[in-house]
Batch of 2 targets.
Target 1
Amino acid sequence: MHKPKFIFVTGGVMSGLGKGVITSSIAKLLQLCNLKVSCMKIDPYLNVDAGTMNPLIHGEVFVTNDGGECDMDIGNYERFLGIDLSKENNITTGQIYASVIEKERKGEYLGECVQIIPHITNEIKNRIINLANKEALDVLVVECGGTVGDMESLPFLEAMRQIKFEGHDTLFIHVTLAPILDVVGEVKTKPTQHSVQELRRIGIQPDIIAVRSKIALDDNVKRKIALFANVDNSAVISSHDAPSIYKVPEILYEQNIINIFAKRFNNLQFNWGYWKDITDRFDKIDKELKIAMVGKYVKLSDSYVSINHALEHAALDIDYKVKIDRIDAEKLERDKDLSLLNNYDGILVPGGFGKRGSEGIISAADYAREHDIPYLGICFGFQLAIVAFARNVCNLEHANSTELDNPKDPVVDLLPDQKAINKLGGTMRLGAHEISIIKDTFAHKLYNTDIIIRRHRHRYEFNQEYKRLFEKNGMIFSAFSDNGRRAEILELKNHPYYFAVQYHAEFSSKFGKPEEAFLAFVKAAAGLSTNC
Ligand code: GLN
């Protein structure tokens, strides 16, 4: 019988070390050994999913094809592995408890006293093992969010310990930090020692220690960590800062991490394939595009992390780097001076919610249209480009979205099926939907197909009562979903690139395989032909 292997990635010292990138890189290396690999993220918080969390604090909500509102690490896994994941690849404490409590209410535990061990831990183990079996994986890499020592993650770590105890093939990787003291310039190993001790206290002996640091760890430091952590010297892997996250697999590979996997998981045939061709290109690039990202959640770059990557993937394809300046829409609204946008090769408006900053975004959408600056609007950026066009081209002075106002001309309105909904979590129009593209449009040339499938996360849409008026004034709606009921793409003629989409194109971009709307956007921003 096929028996999947499990790699468990835990974190020590502090959060925000880039465990997600290390997890993705390990999975990538194993995938390059011709294995069927996937990743799972455990989030030890009580939210059922990330959908209700503030992107300014927790980063972007990543949407899967099946409509999961997930932790942003799922996006990293997809981009590295080039595969689409499901909401089942992200489990939270909220989900685990919800399902155990539901079973208890149904009487499924037959009078037992329901406890963390074994009922919660069994639920966790079942989800991990079932996913690996259902997908017939060779390896499932499971990343546990949070830091060892947190109360929240204990049941998950205990479940991992039990999976090993029950005889599954497992390998534990502990990610820690080796800080450098500025004054003496010395690499400190004590936090790593302590966090490994904490892990062993709960019954887990790590097999590999991946140490985040500013510079590559030297052999002395590695030996010291190996001694204290009770692992072989070669099992201490330096994961130092890289110029791009896509270089991390190389950093790990150069330290022979594959040999450690091979010892555990039999012979492995490794081949870089296309991956290194692309990362090598990265080193030679000397041209840069400047993109203005106008939005509301601009204080944290992780709020739009998939957009950052989609731009990077697309720019790399035409041998450019991309510099993204996040511009606070509220500031544009206050200052009423948009001339700073002239400094950019392109303007991108990402998804967003609520009134704050919306007038700034509307003016930016106008400015791009009037000044021939390439514009890409995503979701909110699609809806507010519609409002801008209604007001300033169609002369509907009081046009707006009903999300933001109670306007005379509701050119963007609530989806009919959203009107009766009063719960926030998981109730938007979510996930992948089929989109039909109209022939002889720019969008059709761009995608070169009649149907695309893209992911969504919205409650509002273009109000098609205004469609004829918009078309009379030159706006082209070039794609629709649900038998024409929802507009999905708008485009303008006689503009270098004015393109906006109701769907989240950024969630479909993979490293080495950029999403088409992003590719055309960066081409236009670089002054290249968009091939259409
Ligand atoms: N707030 C808008 C809506 O709900 C746009 C959502 C988004 O940009 N993701 O439809």
Target 2
Amino acid sequence: MHPVIVAHGGVGSGIEYKEDVVSAVKAGYEALLAGKSALEAVIITVKALEDNVKFNAGYGSYYNLAGEIEMDASVMTSDGRCGAVACVHGVKNPVLLARAVMDTPHVLMAGRGAVEYAKKIGLEFADLRSEKADKKLAEVKKKIREGYYPQWSEKMKNIDLSEYLGDTVGAVAMDMQGKFAAANSTGGISLKLPGRVGDSAIIGAGIYAGSEGAVVTTGIGEEIIKKVLAKAVYDKLAQLGAMKACRWGVDQYDEGIPVGIIAVDKKGYGVAANKQMAWHVLP
Ligand code: ASP
């Protein structure tokens, strides 16, 4: 079977992200052509995007409102195997930690325990802070007028979170054996309370894969979780095909809620977003 891989640079990411997404997709595609699995390919692609400071994943992740980096990531394959991490800090490539969780009896590991596990298995740690994220935090804080607990959690109810997303990364692929895989990674929305977990770590919400294909989403995690979006789109793959299934998924939201979806199935790929989104597919 001819392999295919698609990746995105987050709903809201502009044209200036396109080339970086293209080169990450190329790396994943070369791996597929060399006979590597869909899982290996999506990890190669997502890792390249995590290592690129432009994206809100790994190095370059946005901070929570306490100025800390807390990242979510996940992976899933056709055979239903999956692994995810939530609220992890310091781990250079959260997608590799999500992959490692797949080999444990667990599905989702969070916070301190997940970070300890990363140390135990020898994953790389790095200072992931960036000037870009420093600036973003300053902007966010200005916008909420330096509010504090618990007052600003009250205020948050009325805040339009769509202004605070962007540059999350994800990839889906089918390999030469016709097997599917998906991977996701994010620093989350830039206006978030410490401890907040988005869709990227939640199997079924931000990611899903099975015998029909693979799906990843980007957008306001809270809204994506409520609609269990990746699984809902996955369930439409057989009937609609990847392209229409992605469009159907985006159409479940009002325009004011930014959402992007990419998918692969047996016949091709799908991409849909209700806002600009840098993405690329190969071949
Ligand atoms: N879905 C991510 C989250 O809510 C953000 C994004 O896709 O930009 O954490």
